[in-house]
Amino acid sequence: MAHRADGPAEGPRDARRPDAVRDVLVVVLAATSGATDAIGFLALGGAFTSVMTGNMVLLGVGVGHGDLMLLWLTLTALTSFVVGAAVGARITGPPHPDDGWWPGAITYALLAEAALFGLFAAAWWGFGAKPPEDAMLALLGLNAVALGLQSSAMRRFGVAGLSTTYLTGTLTTVVVRLTGGQRSGQVGHSLWIMAGLVTGAVVGALLVRHLPVAVPLAPLGTLLAVVATATVTRRLITARTASR
């Protein structure tokens, strides 16, 4: 009887553990976005690779000031992000009721993103960590495609608030919920995602300034850590389920 009583008590906790892992990995992916945006803004001409709202504003500024370089940068980032988002949507598809905590299609999309970051790393190091101005557009576009992939891949979860790239809506939701008297615990994960984004940007900026040769390791390292953790966790859960 004691054994039966333990079963139901442990079930909900077990069910929550994969979701907790997923939530942590999403925070790390937000850090990946922050680092890549900082690299784009500071080292690749002054545009973002995931904050498309900001790029639209910069596009308008470029038009108003007649700044052709800014126009090319923002148009490249916008177009590349759209391409990446479209490809990511094709890879991951829409959410399914039986997806589980981490659909395999998301891993495929992140592996494609990692390949793009790998190309960026090869080019960055090939230029001696100092890409010339005529190469900045291509490198910016490469990273924007990568984050477009990541952005659309997150939609496969079908969970509100799990964005890792566009966080203005996340910030608004946090403010609205807190203003409405909801407990801070109900917006905790959103706060962690925003903290992850900022932390990634700090790391990216520090690397650009003090250790340029390590710049590609910030986005590539965090992304590969997410893929590895998700893959190992899925296998452990599958093995555990099969042994029951």
Give the percentage of residues in beta strands. under 5%
Instruction: Provide the number of structural domains.
Output: 1
Oligomer: single chain
- Secondary-structure element order, as H and E? HHHHHHHH
Principal-axes geometry comes out as globular
Mean pLDDT: 90
Count of β-strands: 0
Largest sheet: none
Overall SS class: mainly alpha
**Distance between the terminal alpha carbons, to the nearest Å?**
19 Å
Number of helices: 8
Q: Regions with pLDDT < 50 over 5+ consecutive residues? A: 1-12
Question: Roughly what percent helix?
Answer: over 70%
Computed CA radius of gyration, to the nearest angstrom? 20 Å
Properties at a glance:
mainly alpha, globular, 0% strand, 244 residues
Quick take:
With 244 residues, this protein is mainly α. It has eight helices and no strands. Mean pLDDT is 90; it is low at 1-12.
Please provide a written account of the structure.
With 244 residues, this protein is mainly α. The protein is built from eight helices and no strands. The chain has one domain (25-243). The chain is 77% helix and 0% strand. The relative contact order is 0.18. The model is unreliable at 1-12 (pLDDT under 50).
